Amino acid sequence: MKKWILTLVLVFIPFFMCSCGGPNLEAQCKNNISDIRYNFFSGESDSWNISLTTGKRESPYVLDGKSEQLVDFGILSITPKNLDIYGVFTYLIEIDDLKFEGEFEKSPFDNSFAADIGSMCSNEAEIFVYISDGQNEEVGKLSCISKEFFVDAETSLQICINEYSEDIKEFLSNCEFEIYIKIITDMNSVSNDKFWYVMFLKDNGEFFSFIVDPIKSEIIAKNL
After folding, report:
1. Which element (helix H / strand E) includes 129?
2. 208 close to 223: Cβ distance less than 8 angstroms
3. Helix (H) or strand (E) holding 93
4. Of 34, 23, 70, 62, nearest to 168 (Cα)?
5. Which CATH number is correct for 39-145, 2.30.30, 3.30.70, 2.40.30, 2.60.40?
6. For the segment 100-150, what is each residue's pLDDT rounded down to a tens digit?
């Protein structure tokens, strides 16, 4: 009987040590990522601004403070240079030797269109995007913006944990949580500078977030 009890104790010790806000915070954070973006590409054709970001995210994708199994994704987005462009648009994207095609969906929030190609790629990929309205076709070549980053997605999370470990432990105590690591754009800058956005979301809806400069390798804003 004592041996059986000891076995149960040994089994459950790692569980309690990895509980929310426990000593193994870094490992648990990495195990609770629901959305992580690895790279960002941009380019243009005659009529469109084009971007592609790829990574892994949970499926189903629900902001509920709980992390599910991750799947590959690649969000291809186009925004018309002429705001009066309407219609149904399809794409063919060539990523090195791979091809993906489909139909864009109109965003309900702005004038952009987007599609998920369900695949990741490396920063070194050569990418061409062909956009068609059924009669005319345009092509744009994409360049990797994140290739110039000094800080990748995982490192941006590590920076947040290193600098605010006690705040993070306190915030995440006695809860379930998930983490989102995205690339965001500063629309107020002339060059549309990119930053890492790291958000911790609890199962009760509370969250806090950090913005990490990928060049300076430092936190430039936080919401605690």
Report:
1. strand 127-132
2. yes
3. strand 90-95
4. 23
5. 2.60.40
6. 999 999 999 899 999 999 999 999 999 999 999 999 999 999 999 999 999
Residue 8 has pLDDT above 50, yes or no: no
pLDDT at 49 over 60: yes
- What ranges do the domains of the chain cover? 23-32+147-223, 39-145
CB atoms within 10 A of CB 152: 17
- What is the pLDDT, as a whole number, of residue 190? 67
Instruction: Judge contact between 171 and 203, C-beta under 8 A.
Output: no
Domain 23-32+147-223 = CATH 3.10.450: yes
Q: How many residues does the chain have?
A: 224
Are 93 and 130 in contact by the 8 Å Cβ rule? The answer is yes
CA distances 158 to 9, 46, 181, 219, 224, Å, are 31, 40, 11, 11, 17
Instruction: Give the residue carrying structure tokens 């806000």.
Output: 21
The pair of structure tokens assigned to 220 is 């430039």
Q: Does pLDDT of 24 surpass 90?
A: no
Lookup: tokens for 168: 């993070």
Amino acid at 38: Y
**145, two tokens:** 């913006």
- The distance in angstroms from the start CA to the end CA of the chain is 48
Amino acid identity of residue 171, one-letter, is F
In order, the DSSP letters of 27-59 are HHHHHTEEEEEEEEEEEE-SSEEEEEEEEEEES
For residue 9, the model assigns a pLDDT of 34
